[in-house]
Write a structure and sequence with these properties.
The protein is mainly alpha-helical. The protein has one domain. The chain contains 5 helices and 3 strands; from the N terminus they run αβαααββα. It has a 3-stranded parallel beta sheet with strand order 2-1-3. α3 runs antiparallel to α4. The two termini are about 60 Å apart. About 10% of the residues are buried. About 5% of the residues have low confidence.
């Protein structure tokens, strides 16, 4: 009888343990993009991207004008002047490519710098909500990381997290 009782207890223990675990879930991107701080950071990044785009267009137009001028005059140029102008055009093109690569690197860095405090704030809110509501963990449902969540076993923590951020 004791063995039977012990066996039932051992079999029921995982069921009792799983009944006590509570978890939450939410879409990280949805909450992140609803934050005013995110919108302001995104606007700043978009403005910076536009400035770099404008400079790249200006440089491209300058290069195109020089190249067209070279094409029009190349028949009349002596070989040494022709090589000099070809070198100038090549240098301009290399500088434009280098600027474009540097602009992409700087934009990526600016984006990381702008969004780091916003993500930190969201992560702190998630941790606070998790502690307040007694969750064992909170799942991020973005990117098919968690394609199915049984709503009877977990709770949608989205609104609680948004409320914590306000």
């Amino acid at each position: 009888m004791k063995k039977l009782f012990l066996l039932l207890f051992v079999l029921a223990l995982p069921l009792l343990a799983s009944a006590q675990i509570r978890f939450g879930y939410f879409s990280y991107d949805t909450v992140l993009k609803s934050m005013p701080d995110y919108l302001m950071a995104q606007r700043n990044i978009d403005d910076l991207r536009q400035k770099y785009d404008n400079e790249m267009k200006r440089s491209e137009q300058e290069f195109n004008a020089k190249y067209e001028e070279f094409l029009d005059a190349q028949r009349d140029l002596v070989p040494s002047i022709l090589r000099k102008r070809q070198t100038e055009i090549q240098e301009i093109m290399e500088k434009n490519v280098a600027f474009k690569q540097e602009a992409q690197r700087l934009l990526k860095q600016a984006e990381a710098d702008a969004f780091t405090p916003v993500k930190r704030k969201l992560n702190e809110a998630v941790a606070k909500v998790g502690a307040q509501l007694g969750y064992a963990f909170i799942l991020n449902t973005d990117g098919d990381a968690c394609p199915y969540v049984n709503p009877e076993m977990g709770e949608d923590a989205t609104e609680a997290i948004k409320a914590e951020l306000k």
